[in-house]
Amino acid sequence: MVIGLIILTAFVSWQGFQNSAFLERMLFIPYRIKHQLEWPRFFTHMLVHIDWSHLIFNMMTLYFIGDFLFKEYSILFGTVKGIYYFLALYLMGGLFATLYSYYRHQDNAGYRSLGASGAVTAVLFAFIAAHPSQGLMLMFIPIPIPAYIFGPVYLLVEYYAFRKGNTGIAHDAHISGAIAGILFVIFFIPGYGQFFASLLH
To answer: In order of start, what are the domains of the chain with their CATH numbers?
Structure first.
């Protein structure tokens, strides 16, 4: 299922690389959502990317982390429900990634964003929330970093970049996607909500 999602995203992104008019129809544009009621843009932006490096980075993360989670959900809930749970997580991440930007830019006709980063970050943080002691590696740091360290450091870096601004990257989408992944685990995956509650005592 994850492979299918990657193939779909790669194909649609490739279409966007070839056809600027098609890409424009897929972008997240808050102004057009509000004033022209183009609601599908809350989700279509997840299927297009700015270039091959953007696409490959997101899809590699989705492949390694997403495939693990999908298999885990299939074991927990069965294959069919596992698909539903994983897609719900992915779509929730993609939607959450747009909400803050929609609030800030709904009357800004020039604002545009794209990419699956918010949805992929939701998958990453659902993994971190469920497996906080698991090691995660970055491509340029080939040493496993415990997820409970990786997660907060990632969020701090994203928050700093967001406050700094002018990076050309929707850091708010990454932060919102991370929150979506954590909330998904707490509210929809049995047992993990109790795990988080135990950490607070």
So the answer is: 2-199 (1.20.1540.10)
Average pLDDT of the residues of the chain = 88
Model's pTM, two decimal places?
A: 0.90
d(CA 195, CA 90): 22
- Token duo for residue 93: 């991440």
Give the model's pLDDT for residue 147: 85
